Amino acid sequence: MGPRVKFTKEQIVDVAFEIAKEEGMDGITMRKIAEKLGSSVAPIYVNFKDIHELIEAVVNRIMEMSQQLLAEESTGNPFYDMGMASFKFAQEYSVLFRDLVLKDGNYLKNYDEDMLPMLVEEMKKDPELEGFSEEELKTILFKVRTFQLGLSVMTANGLLPKDLSIKDLMEILGSAAEDIVLSTRIKKNQ
């Protein structure tokens, strides 16, 4: 009997992520991972009790990447940062983006709980958003996210005009965000 091959959780998640990036989340199987690792499935089960636990680890990796993309922007404009991170993710990881956003699944069930409070806190630092209550900020964020998500879906699905750059998308998103903030401010002052 040959020596047992050991793999770290990180190595297994790396392979599962690569599969998901190419084939989507449904493409992740223990057998495919084992095949790519050149192993049996046994070392995978040493690290993960089942496929659901492994997929959860992949989703956590994706959320960490999403947070990293958001942190890399860090311009002080939360809508710009959110939009740029989303557009980059949708462009670079279109299969994953479509899986996470368009399929009926629970992959993003914790996203709002984890990310929205952080985004609202960033909004509170923006001088353009002074004077709004937390509830108003959440409503503004929801409206901007809805618009931004639509643009991201179009990006991931190749539905935008070919000559439209990320810079163009950011200008469109920025204009829509300004309109949303302005209309909210006008309604608040009436």
TrEMBL record:
HTH tetR-type domain: residues covered: 6-66
Start-end of DNA-binding region: 29-48
One term of GO molecular function: DNA binding
Keyword DNA-binding: yes
Keywords assigned: DNA-binding
Short name of any one Pfam family annotated for the protein: TetR_N
Transmembrane segments: none
Keyword Zinc: no
Name of the protein this chain belongs to: TetR/AcrR family transcriptional regulator
Organism field: Alkaliphilus serpentinus
Source species taxonomy: Bacteria, Bacillati, Bacillota, Clostridia, Peptostreptococcales
